[in-house]
Amino acid sequence: MTGNDNNNKKTAAAPFRPLFPVRGLADIRRLEETPLEEALTVRSTYELFRNSGAAFGDKTALTFLRSGNPADEPIRWSYAQLLAGIHQTANLLHTLGVGPEDAVAVLLPGCLEYHLALWGGEAAGIVQPLNPLLTDEKLVALMTAARAKVLIAYGSDAESGMWSKAMRLRGQVPTLTTVLRVAPHDEEPGAAGALPEGVAEFDALRAAQPSDHLVSGRDIAPTDIAAYFHTGGTTGAPKLARHSHGAQVFTAWASVQLAGMNENGISINGYPLFHVAGVLPASLSALSAGVEVIIPTPSLLRNKEVLANYWKLVAKYRPSSLSAVPTVLAALANVPLDGADISSITYCRTGAAVLAPELAARFERLFGLHVHESLGMTEMAGISTITPPGVNGPAGCVGFRLPYSRIRIVALDESGNASDRDVAPGEQGMVLFKSPNVFSGFVDPADNAKAFTSDGWLATGDLGWMDSEERLNLTGRSKDLIIRSGHNIDPKTIEDALGAHPAVQLCAAVGAPDAYAGELPVIFATLVPGASATEEELLAFTAARVDEAPARPKWVSVIGAMPMTNVGKIYKPELRAMAARQVVAATVAELCAELGASDAARPVVTTEGESLVHVQIDAAEAGALAAVMQERLQKALAPLPVKTRIALN
């Protein structure tokens, strides 16, 4: 009998269920009294879905909203239908030559089929969810690094031009053999017409496959790689992180225990499904426990109709939990209840970025919902710490460690990296983890150099401290520290100060280049719709609330929209580039005033990427001043710790 035959005929085990409410570290230690190998016997995500399928059968697993209109009828899949689709997808991929070490790339919006691609992909090989908003060049690089054999793509350009992008990628990834087209929901059969060679309709091929077992002969081990997730949301170039089946299963089990998930739960998952938050804590964990997961349209929470009707959707679908990144919570704070009954929500969660105290207070004041924070990261299969229901903490408190995991807080070295010196409780340092869900390293070994300390701890780059209840409290990211003449300034101090202003919607502090101090603190802000405030007023408001003189920002810039990553984090590299441009532009303006240059002759200042500032002098407009301008600007800008390029045209 093959391992797979054994696996297929094995009686399904019970789904994940919380053993008891977790309210403190004593409860986590109580969970740890049972050895992990006894507490968690599920070996793969495939086995997890077999267990849920057997336990919950006809119960709704996934609800897809066609639009943000609460009156529209959704599409629903039961747990049995989901498992059948996972079997069919895995079997289809197997017939296309996908084995345990082959990658299946996924380029889809929010849709039911994403769950077939994810979990069927993991049952057959290694799934690679892709951010559709990345450039073709980055997608090609990621797929080539993963040696992707199959691409499952959305068959329409209505969402981020995905189908055209998929067709462009076809000829650029050497290992790619097949593209499977996922038809948009409610598309008429045959509407796509003839497809090119090597491209086929996903649903048509899937329907021909067995739906009750895997035909591959595969016995999936916990150490087998389940997924490649790309990182790099708020930093630079994306890297491919490897998740084992065991790491993902542990994330699901630990989330169920600490968050108290069970089959009575309903959640709206508005996180992108190419990101660990949407895939693991918000989907795999929920589906392992029988929760109904709602997908709010292909555009998810980027859909303005969904946001505008969010509380009405809550009133209709009665979710028991609300989970969203802080920037989405800030947007929801501007959506009036208008009498909507949101009493079904008993647990409100956020993560991905530190929650501003003012936003936490505003949300509780407006909706009666305390926001519970968690910490998650790609390198820990989506979850690292959780604040359980019933445990209220101050903003920035991200809760308890997971069972069987460990946390250390260490001082930073002179380069801003983790040292080997532990700090005292209450003292800030870099957060380190050891845990069963720590990832299996990056695909490129060169990317692992800074991921782990020499003694094997995961170096998160997050700054935080432990409180008296041994809860982790975050303050920011080590790379976001503003270093002014060797003085480390925590941007959160400035952000919390300005964030308390009633007109401010979002704000973010960064370092602006300075010839003498290296960096000076500055802050960007967006305003609440309909509110008004001058930059001078906001600067005075902030300065009055920042005790430490070096941390008081030099200026406040009000902008129309905050730059964001695709999962709703504020993108600080772009803000740093904007700050550098403003500093250079001020130097240019000062020089032009000295030279008596006209407005038309003023050089144009632009940025390229995150680290280069261009100064373009129009020789025709500047005339005789052009050469003088160039020489004087080179001298004036040379001391700045930012790359500048001055050109005449």
From TrEMBL:
Taxonomy of the source species: Bacteria, Pseudomonadati, Pseudomonadota, Betaproteobacteria, Burkholderiales
GO BP term, pick one: fatty acid metabolic process
Keyword Transmembrane: no
Domain AMP-dependent synthetase/ligase stretches: 50-442
Pfam families per record: AMP-binding, AMP-binding_C
One of the record's GO molecular function terms: medium-chain fatty acid-CoA ligase activity
Alphabetically ordered keywords of this record: Ligase
Organism annotation: Variovorax paradoxus (strain EPS)
PANTHER family listed in its UniProt record: 2-SUCCINYLBENZOATE--COA LIGASE, CHLOROPLASTIC_PEROXISOMAL, ACYL-COA SYNTHETASE
AMP-binding enzyme C-terminal domain: residues covered: 494-569
Gene3D superfamilies given in the database record: 3.30.300.30, N-terminal domain of ligase-like
Nucleus is among the record's keywords: no
Protein name as it appears in the record: AMP-dependent synthetase and ligase
